[in-house]
Specification:
The complex is a heterodimer of chains A (1143) and B (600). With 1143 residues, chain A is mainly beta. Chain A is 11% helix and 45% strand. Classes of the chains: A mainly beta (1143), B mainly alpha (600).
Chain lengths: 1143, 600
């Protein structure tokens, strides 16, 4: 090959004013770019009076090119006599074709031959064209677009009878006919045209990426869903996971919080194992993890396949027991360089926040009441002052105690203080792609910025992505590719931002204010807000670099080939965080006190490398047109190493320079290393008879370093069958309604190696002790736990039945699956052992679980004419459910504190609440509740306290022995698992206007606010907590006997085993919800207008995320339905504008 | 044909790789690099030292006497719940006992693996002895709770079914094993020139402490049917005497920052050189090691009138009891401090005390019900903040050894004046209290003590009573009192609602000693409104309205302050509450365990 650095012809193509685009791309790739236009194929040719066809055939034999022409165009041309040696193909073709009034064009590996322009024009005469366009049944098609192929500005649409006319068209001009849902056609103009448009069978030709291969969707025998995440980039999401929520039936996305760095978790088909277990994530054929998926540029994604059953995922072996998410990135599509730029700018607000009572007198009085009889939080003078402040909002909130210490009687809504009213985020992405005979390229970059919601101190997130994909055709049967991606993100936030912040902010006393009269921090002001704004910053930098080299060699083109991949991934995390003292004052002449009294600077760094080698061969051939065989066999080896170190040093010399190099105090260091290795051989056999009967077998033999040497390997077999009924003769009668129908069945078994790298070994931990011995804190080494000697694989077997059909000209599509997944030999604590063991009961392969579920996806695709323009719309609905049961567990006594056989995962046990006691007589005559009454001796039951049902009439409310055999009034009252998860999407497009609406939700889920849920229980938990409006206004009083909460009584919801803190029916929340996840409306400017700007597409849009939700939660429980408990970085609504530009 | 040969090659290649994959070679072996396994450990003396470092946390210090008759505690405590009758083996108020066994396993884990340790025999034995000492200490804590517990001298494996499922061993066997451990420790450990590192004297002290405990326990708890208490009292006396005779320790007489030597022991930033310390917990601001002793002061407990009254009154070079002073029971919070044992105002806050975080004398929170505890209150401003105190805390101090010696002797009826002079009288001398005379003790028995400890059996009853007083005073607020009541079988004393200072009636009171009223105690809100606003303003009065308050007066409108939540709530069932039941859940798992007979 002859690389010519100067031949950057393609870059100079057209106008130079678009050079600005290229600053995004790596300089290094310019080196390869000359290949894009390098038609350096040489040909040797010696013919005598040969016809053109023969010449073309000879050239085809020497090169990768195939010639394509109409016989009529070449038939009567003069024969060729020529003798050349190693002549450049383009020179040769020009010398042969030009004299014969022919021209050529290279598209990929095809050379198109056509009459040269001058020749055509010379011959042409103008004609009047009349035509009619009908479908296969002969019905006229209305509104079909007909344009002149080489001049798109001239065109028309068919009328009510399917007819169209053109004036002054040159004879033989190519007309392009296109209609949504039908295959486009090009025809030569002539005066009377009858054109039959065929249905676009794209639905049936759709291909899906599966493990180590691509299959036609119609030929799938396993449970595979696929998704082209269009419009993902219109949404103001900061990670891919958020965008996938609700998109695929039974692909469950766990969004942890509204924090920019949150990395949503993925789950396929419900409960996997008691030890957890998530799907394997594979990006472009390389094993990845959820962080890599979440942080990649959403615009890079071309398609996502979800392999749900064992049959589909078995080829990935023992990490794929709970499904696989296969992500494929974009590639160049055609010869034209296409460039896309997308952006959005969004404003975010918090979805839900509790409403708090802040009136000083009500707060002080209520707090006193709710502390009784243990504490008297405010004395008489303080109460009097609170009353004064309540009546006169201008009164100073500062009350000086006799000892000079301040007491505060303000009205601070700390929730308001904690978070901003609005935040900002933006994202941008550019990509450039194209392909030529030699190379297919895709280069992209993306950027996301989010300014968080923390009011004091900021939290800012930046995420950058770069990707370069190059695929070189070295010869007709050999290609080499490289796919390199680079992701880096940084997050700069207050060091103290974390779970305690969300907890404390709801516990802060509204009477407290944040600043003293002289502007210094108060104690409580400093404890949350002060440390946020001045108490030190934490900076996290994460960098993921991956490069993968792949090669494909065809022994027999499209029949037998071998592919290999080598991928290197490195993930580097670096964190630096410091603690800076924040002064606060408790009285005017007091010395300062400090939050974070001891300053320090800390850092951690981790570095992982993952090496992957894959090699596999594929044989694919169709014998006798009916017997299609595919066989794949391959080998995979992986190696991983993770190095982590952490260090810190106390006592900074200068708080302005928080560096451990400038610290003088105690030092801390720690290190941790993890390595693992994996080897596997895998294979697939697939046989399809007449596109009707599909048989597939997948298997993988896997070994992992995570298990002891003698139990390290496992075989993961699976098989599947499918029957395309619609191909059968007996199906003919209903063929006009049912376009396609297939029944699938599969069964497979996979090991799961999702355990720690060294869990099978008993390790002795070490660390500095807290005691100071001779002035130092020395290191201690601790006894290890006990590890079971027969520690090995847990296995998941899945049985799956599926049905797919398409109706009404493929407008309605249906996919349905039902499955049973049995997780066997889960690593759990073995049988209960006496406490004298003194350590955790070792994990053994001792439990089984069964999950039953189903999922359906319905699609509807149609179009109609509206005001003379096409109105296209698409509806997609998915619904899924699963339930899981324990089928084996070592719990011979049936203790309810542990799992037991027959237990449904997620079940909530509790008492049945009857309401409130209304009189002392009622209390006396009711069953004895003393066992579950909080401090019955101190504060006996009274009207307004909760009354529970004595279900077994033993005159006592109790949970008995809390065993299956004896649980008295304790019963199953709900289930906290998400069921009937659904996603609903409607999108439509008309006359350049597009709209889409996406609703996601959960149909059934219960949530029991535990005693620690201060967002729900507020002051009922503890007198320090805030009084929510619900607590105060909607409680039992004699005047309000129908209140929601019981009478005010201190600590009544503090313990999980007493009264309000008990799990019970009255406060069980209906946590189902439906949420308008996204609404987008966009406008694409007409091509006529944008073409003048050399822009092929220009679209502007508005997009809103989390705009609205309905949920079954108690009306005053103001938490996000996806963030139950509320103790997390708040979720946000987003309102964004953006544009998409394509060149 | 070309096709066939290609196919052959590729198939062979794949087959080759498949065979390779079956190779379970070193590539597949991955070992931890930053954690050690036991095979590589327990090789050197250093390994033993590093391992035993992890045991230091088992031995702690205490700075409070809650719950006991020394204090009024405004929060809830296990014993309160028990005395309210809310505890039974089937409910969650009885914790599982699994949590106690981890430390014992850690010690046994080492003791089972010392065979491969190379090095100096004496050095090895020092650490092995230390492990035995810790095992004794840990086990005795279990004995104190459960009495009978299963004894294990190895770390159990899941296959050790017989051991895992055995029943409790009798207390006598367990305690003998504990004493054997201590014997081993005392014989094999060496002296270390450090008060933060564990030495032989620590083992000796624990031997004295445990033997005294067991000796008195057996003596006063006939339900055990173990009548050999004297054997243990003798061991205690001998062990204590060994420490005394070693002359390595003396009572500290160093006055620091204007504080008396006794007081300074509990708020000193450095005790590691203090001659009285046998073992010290070192706290350090720069290392970020803090405790929370600042909560002792006026935070959620107060000291009781009962304790207050036990401090003697100085009368020239003699002493008399507080109850012998006329009008003792009506003395104000100012008057009780007159002519008392100097340790009284070093333990109790005397009105006028200005705390390090304040500019004015502290006004004790009357809602805590009692007197404010000053002992252990840190004296610098920066320490008075949540978990920010860093005074060194005594774990074992010499005064305790002297008290053990005196008590062991007196209980046996063998106390001599000489014994008294080398123990209690040294303590009194340091405190500034006239020396005690054995003759007076035996002849002039204080009726208050006699009534309180009515079950004392000793030929030297008067001496036992006075040693108990001395112990209560000297070791006040150091966490001994509750256990002392248990071993002396005085649980019934806990039934009494603890009381605080005396309020003669509604009105205003000076509680800071400046002759200006600080607080007002009134019956109702209306009474509070009757106090002239000018007075409230001038004196910045803190007004306590009793109606609806968390405190009340024993006589309604006058009397001693007490906590409403504690009145008439408690009943101490004897001997049941001296023993902790085993959770029924533990018995379910191991049916061979038997429930304590009083909890059946």
């Amino acid at each position: 090959m002859n690389f010519n650095i100067n031949s950057l012809t393609f870059l100079r193509r057209k106008d130079t004013d678009k050079k600005w685009i290229f600053f995004f791309f790596f300089v290094s790739f310019f080196f390869f770019s000359n290949l894009l236009y390098a038609q350096d194929t040489n040909v040797t040719l010696a013919v005598n009076n040969a016809n053109l066809k023969g010449v073309f055939e000879q050239i085809e034999k020497q090169t990768i090119y195939k010639f394509s022409y109409r016989d009529a165009d070449v038939a009567n041309k003069k024969n060729v006599t020529i003798s050349v040696s190693k002549r450049r193909l383009e020179t040769l073709l020009e010398s042969i074709l030009k004299p014969r009034q022919l021209d050529y064009k290279v598209v990929g590996t095809k050379v198109l031959i056509f009459p040269s322009e001058s020749n055509l024009n010379a011959k042409k005469k103008e004609i009047f064209v009349r035509g009619k366009i009908v479908d296969v049944k002969g019905d006229p098609l209305i509104g079909v677009s007909v344009v002149i192929a080489n001049d798109k500005n001239v065109g028309t649409v068919t009328d009510l009878n399917g007819g169209f006319t053109f004036d002054h068209v040159k004879d033989g001009t190519v007309l392009k006919i296109s209609y949504i849902g039908y295959q486009s056609q090009e025809v030569s103009a002539n005066s009377n045209l009858q054109i039959v448009l065929k249905e676009d069978t794209k639905v049936l030709d759709e291909v899906v990426v599966v493990g180590y291969a691509i299959q036609k969707k119609v030929n799938l025998s396993g449970a595979v869903a696929n998704l082209s995440p269009e419009r993902i980039n219109d949404r103001p999401v900061v990670n891919v996971g958020q965008a996938l929520q609700g998109a695929v039936a039974n692909l469950n996305i766990g969004v942890g919080s509204g924090q920019a760095t949150d990395s949503p978790s993925f789950n396929i088909r419900g409960v996997t194992s008691l030890n957890g277990g998530s799907p394997l994530i594979v990006i472009d054929g390389v094993i990845s993890d959820k962080t890599q998926l979440n942080r990649m540029s959403p615009t890079d994604i071309a398609s996502i396949s979800i392999l749900k059953d064992a049959a589909s995922s078995a080829i990935y072996g023992s990490r794929a027991a709970y499904g696989v998410i296969l992500v494929t990135t974009k590639s160049g599509k055609d010869e034209k360089i296409s460039i896309h730029y997308n952006n959005n700018f969004s404003v975010k607000t918090i979805t839900q926040m509790p409403e708090i009572i802040t009136d000083p007198y009500i707060v002080a009085k209520t707090k006193n009441f709710m502390a009784y009889p243990w504490y008297n939080l405010y004395n008489e003078e303080q109460l009097a002052y609170a009353k004064k402040c309540s009546e006169d909002p201008t009164a100073s909130p500062y009350f000086v105690n006799p000892n000079g210490e301040y007491s505060y009687f303000g009205r601070t809504d700390w929730v308001d203080e904690a978070y901003k009213k609005s935040g900002f985020s933006t994202s941008h992405s550019v990509d450039m792609s194209g392909k030529t005979k030699y190379v297919n390229y895709y280069l992209s970059t993306g950027y996301t910025f989010q300014d968080g919601m923390i009011k004091y101190g900021t939290d800012k997130y930046n995420n950058y992505n770069l990707r370069a994909k190059l695929d070189f055709n070295i010869s007709n049967n050999w290609s080499i590719s490289n796919n390199t991606s680079f992701n880096t993100s940084d997050y700069d936030a207050p060091t103290s931002l974390g779970s305690s912040y969300y907890w404390e902010i709801i516990r802060m006393n509204p009477l407290d204010v944040s600043r003293n009269p002289d502007g210094t921090w108060t104690k409580n002001g400093s404890s949350q807000l002060g440390i946020m704004s001045e108490g030190g910053r934490s900076k996290d930098y994460k960098t993921i670099i991956r490069t993968q080299f792949g090669s494909k060699f065809d022994f027999i083109k499209d029949v037998l080939w071998v592919q290999g991949t080598f991928a290197y991934t490195t993930v580097k995390n670096r964190s630096k965080w410091d603690y800076i003292p924040v002064a606060y004052y408790e009285g005017e002449n007091f010395s300062p006190r400090f939050q974070n009294e001891i300053s320090s600077s800390n850092a951690s760094s981790s570095d992982s490398k993952h090496l992957l080698y894959d090699i596999y061969g594929t044989f694919h051939k169709i014998f006798s047109k009916k017997h299609a065989f595919t066989a794949i066999a391959g080998f995979n080896q992986e190696e991983y190493r993770y190095d982590y170190m952490k260090l810190g040093r106390k006592d900074l010399i200068s708080n302005d320079l928080p560096s451990y190099n400038l610290a003088t105090g105690d030092m801390n260091v720690s290190e941790s290393v993890e390595t693992w290795a994996l080897r596997g051989a895998f294979g697939r056999l697939n046989y399809i008879f007449d596109d009707k009967y599909i048989f597939e077998f997948n298997g993988r033999y896997d070994g992992t370093s995570r298990f002891p040497k003698d139990s390290r390997f496992v075989f993961n077999p699976s098989g599947s069958l499918a029957w395309v009924i619609s191909k059968e003769k007996f199906f003919k009668p209903i063929e006009s309604v049912v376009d396609f129908m297939k029944i699938r069945g599969s069964y497979g078994s996979l090991g799961n190696q999702d355990v720690g790298a060294y869990d099978f070994m008993a390790l002795m931990n070490s660390g500095k002790i807290s005691s100071i011995l001779n002035g130092k804190q020395p290191v201690a080494v601790y006894a290890p736990g006990i590890v079971s000697s027969n520690f090995t694989w847990e296995k998941a077997t899945t049985f799956n039945l599926g049905l797919d059909f398409n109706l009404l000209n493929n407008r309605l599509t249906f996919n349905g699956d039902m499955y049973v997944r049995r997780t066997k030999d889960m690593l759990t604590t073995g049988q209960p052992l006496p406490g004298v063991l003194g350590t955790a009961i070792p994990r053994e392969n001792a439990a089984d679980l069964k999950t039953k579920g189903w999922e359906i996806t319905l699609g509807w695709n149609d179009h109609f004419r509206l005001a003379g323009k096409d109105f296209n719309y698409h509806i997609n609905f998915n619904l899924a459910d699963s339930r899981s049961y324990i089928t084996r567990f070592e719990n011979p006594k049936g203790e309810l504190d542990s799992h037991y056989v027959g237990e449904e995962i997620g079940e909530i046990w509790g008492f049945k609440t009857l309401g409130f006691f209304t009189s002392n007589e009622e209390i006396k005559s009711h069953a004895d509740q003393s066992e579950i009454t909080s401090y019955p001796g101190t504060r006996p039951l009274a009207p307004g306290d909760l009354k529970f049902e004595d279900t077994n009439n033993n005159s006592k409310i109790s949970w008995g022995g809390k065993t299956l055999a004896n649980h008295d009034d304790w019963q199953i009252i709900g289930n906290n698992r998400s069921r009937y998860t659904f996603g609903f999407n409607v999108s439509a497009e008309w006359n350049g206007i597009d709209m889409s609406l996406f609703v996601q939700g959960i149909g059934k889920k219960d949530y029991m606010p535990g005693p620690g849920d201060l967002y729900f229980w507020g002051i009922y938990s503890q007198p320090w907590a805030n009084i929510t409006k619900g607590n105060y206004n909607d409680r039992w009083t004699e005047e309000n006997p129908t209140g929601y909460f019981p009478r005010f009584k201190s600590y009544v919801a503090e313990q999980g085993s007493k009264e309000a803190g008990l799990s019970q029916t009255r406060y069980l929340q209906d946590a189902s919800y439906a949420r308008l996840k996204n609404f987008t409306i966009g406008y694409t400017f007409p091509a006529l207008f944008t073409n003048k700007l050399h822009i092929s597409k220009l679209r502007v849009f508005f997009s809103g995320d989390n705009l609205f939700e309905i949920s079954g939660l108690y009306k005053n429980y103001k938490v996000d339905p996806e963030g139950l408990g509320g103790q997390l970085y708040p979720f946000q609504r987003s309102y964004s504008f953006g544009l998409n530009v394509s060149i | 044909m070309k096709f066939k040969s290609n196919l052959y090659h590729i198939m062979a290649g794949i087959a080759g790789l498949a065979i390779l994959s079956a190779c379970n070679d070193s590539f597949m072996d991955r070992f931890p690099e930053t954690s050690i396994t036991e095979k590589l450990y327990f090789k050197s003396v250093k390994d033993l030292e590093t391992y035993t470092n992890g045991m230091y946390g088992y031995l702690g210090s205490s700075y409070s006497d809650v719950p006991s008759d020394n204090a009024l505690y405004a929060e809830d405590a296990d014993i309160y719940a028990k005395m309210r009758g809310e505890v039974n083996p089937s409910n969650d108020n009885v914790p599982r006992w699994g949590g106690n066994w981890g430390s014992i396993r850690s010690v046994n884990f080492m003791l089972q693996r010392i065979g491969g340790v190379k090095g100096d025999k004496a050095e090895i034995n020092h650490y092995v002895g230390m492990a035995h000492m810790f095992r004794a200490h840990l086990y005795y804590n279990l004995v104190k709770r459960y009495s009978d517990v299963p004894w294990y001298n190895k770390d159990l494996q899941t296959a050790d079914t017989a051991l895992l499922y055995k029943k409790q061993d009798p207390r006598s066997l367990v305690v003998d094993s504990i004493l054997a451990d201590l014997d081993f420790a005392v014989k094999n450990m060496k002296e270390v020139n450090s008060k933060t590192v564990i030495s032989r004297d620590v083992a000796l002290s624990l031997q004295a402490r445990i033997a005294l405990n067991e000796g008195t326990y057996r003596k006063y708890h006939p339900e055990l049917e173990l009548k050999d208490g004297d054997r243990f009292l003798e061991i205690a006396a001998i062990a204590a005497k060994k420490i005394i005779d070693s002359k390595r320790y003396t009572l500290s007489k160093v006055e620091q920052d204007g504080l008396k030597s006794y007081e300074s022991l509990f708020c000193s930033l450095d005790l590691t050189k203090n001659p009285e310390m046998i073992l010290v917990a070192d706290y350090d601001k720069s290392l970020g090691r803090f405790h929370n002793a600042q909560t002792v002061f006026d935070y959620n407990w107060g000291l009781s009138r009962d304790l207050m009254e036990d401090y003697l009154v100085l009368d020239g070079n003699k002493t008399k009891t507080f109850q012998s002073v006329a009008g003792y029971d009506k003395k104000s919070v100012l008057e009780v401090f007159e002519n008392r044992d100097p340790r009284f105002e070093q333990t109790f806050m005397k009105p006028g005390y200005v705390r390090a975080n304040s500019l004015i004398p502290n006004r004790v929170k009357q809602t805590l019900g009692g007197y404010a505890q000053k002992k252990f209150d840190p004296r610098t401003y920066d320490q008075i903040s949540w978990d920010k105190s860093y005074t060194d805390l005594p774990i074992i101090r010499y005064a305790e050894i002297l008290l053990i010696y005196a008590e062991a002797k007196a209980e046996q009826g063998k106390l001599t004046q000489n014994d008294l002079d080398i123990s209690i009288n040294l303590i009194r001398e340091r405190a500034g209290v006239p020396a005690a005379s054995l003759t007076n003790w035996l002849s002039q028995i204080d009726p208050v003590q006699e009534k309180r400890y009515s079950n004392v059996q000793s030929a030297q009853k008067g001496a036992v009573l006075e040693v108990r007083r001395e112990r209560r005073i000297e070791l006040a607020c150091e966490g001994f009192r509750y256990n002392d009541l248990m071993r002396w079988k005085n649980g019934k004393l806990l039934e009494n609602t603890p009381e605080g200072s005396y309020i003669p009636g509604y009105g205003t009171y000076d509680i800071t000693g400046d002759n200006q009223p600080d607080i007002a105690v009134v019956g109702t809100k209306a009474d509070a409104d009757k106090i002239p606003a000018a007075d409230k303003e001038k004196y910045k009065l803190t007004v306590y309205v009793l109606e609806g308050n968390t405190i009340e007066l024993t006589g309604g409108n006058k009397g001693y302050i007490r906590l409403v939540a504690q009145v008439n709530k408690w009943k101490f069932e004897e001997p049941k509450y001296y023993y902790q039941p085993i959770s029924n859940k533990d018995i379910t798992i191991n049916p061979n365990l038997f429930q304590n007979k009083y909890w059946k």
